[in-house]
Amino acid sequence: INSNVRNLFCYLIVNKRKLSFILHFDISQSFYLQYMLQVNFIRQNKERILKGLKTRNYKESSFALVEQIIALDDARKEAQTKLDKLLSENNKTAKEIGGLFKQGKREAAELLKQGVEERKVQVKSLEDTLRQVKEQLTDSLLQLPNVPHDSVPPGNTDEDNEVYKEWDQAIPDLGSHALPHWDLAKKYNLIDFELGTKITGSGFPLFRGKGARLQRGLINFFLDEAMKAGYEEIVPPLLVNEQTARATGQLPDKEGQMYYVERDDLYLIPTAEVPITNIYRDIIVNEKDFPIKLTGYTPCFRREAGAHGKDTRGLNRVHQFDKIEIVQLVHPEKSYDTLKEMLAHIEGLLKKLELPYRILRLCGGDLGFTSTLTFDFETYSAGQKRWLEVSSVSNFETFQSNRLKLRYKDKDKKTQFAHTLNGSALALARIIATLLENHQTPDGIRIPKALQSYVGFEIIN
User: Fold this and answer.
1) How many whole angstroms separate alpha carbon 219 and alpha carbon 443?
2) DSSP state string for 266-293
């Protein structure tokens, strides 16, 4: 055998475990790499993270998760150092074995190979340990929520949310004859809840006639308004894979609320945020391209497990609903100005629909897992005499971009994570509910002027 071929053959024999590990790591552990900087952030901001968990009303027992992450990362580093040392020794020995074979010193080469075999056992053990530690570390990191903004108020439930902006007019009082939207829908043959239940099940309403035209008109109105504001329209897939759902934080946090197609290992989207934000997964964008503004209309699917009572009546809480989502990817220095801009956009939509609304700043206990700061819009239901959430607008800072590996290069050519934001602009189910209820008159349901050209009529009667 040619000496060069022999040397290569000996190197491959001695280092096959190393090569196998490298290939395995690149494939099965690539998702883990997305969290490396997060571990460093946790180390450097431990007290801030613990404070954030308290704001979210997490039990003190969950605080151990932070220490667990740091301990697992220490174990990872230790195992990696030992493994690298052994692989380095084997690499060095491989060259020595090749040299001995070349010199015809087969007996000395065989003696060195014995040492290599002993280290291979140690390498195998360390590889298994390292793989297990990395899996545990990834699982632990996935359980840690985003750090709340300093302005997030304390509180346990939605009753503790802070009113950020009040409706500046009198709450409408339509008298005792005002009907809830499910009665109006039946009266004017707009939505058939019973037929939807027959076809699919509870929580899947069927829109018909002017109800269907109202739905379509609202979708086009919201999309047109978004494009006027500089958003690019996207028509995304309605099913996503596991990595896509994990990248925006729906998995594992909201797994129980998502519809899962087991045969294809795919999830129906709970919001267009998921596929639209993932357009920029594993991407380094140009800083000059900020802000990146995207919008999309999709049906949304949510199991709403555990929901019951008056909150589920009519369109109050359904399993399938249409929604227009707005998403922005921005420079970190601009994200809170962008949040205000998005709030103003949604507020403008509600004004054009002539709906009474208020804006809430969510408390720690009601804050979403991935969000650092969230504002909810609620419209008043004149038929039910209660407020209904119709939009949620959030800044995630780098929480999603860290998972997405969505980065940009700053002026010093250093790679940084972008900030991501999104909001409902708007969710149609409850918008239709409050639109029907607030605009009912003795002569029928009045259509707001801004919407009339989209639906083709001024009144439903």
Assistant:
1) 26
2) EEE-SSTHHHHHGGGTT-EE-GGGPSEE
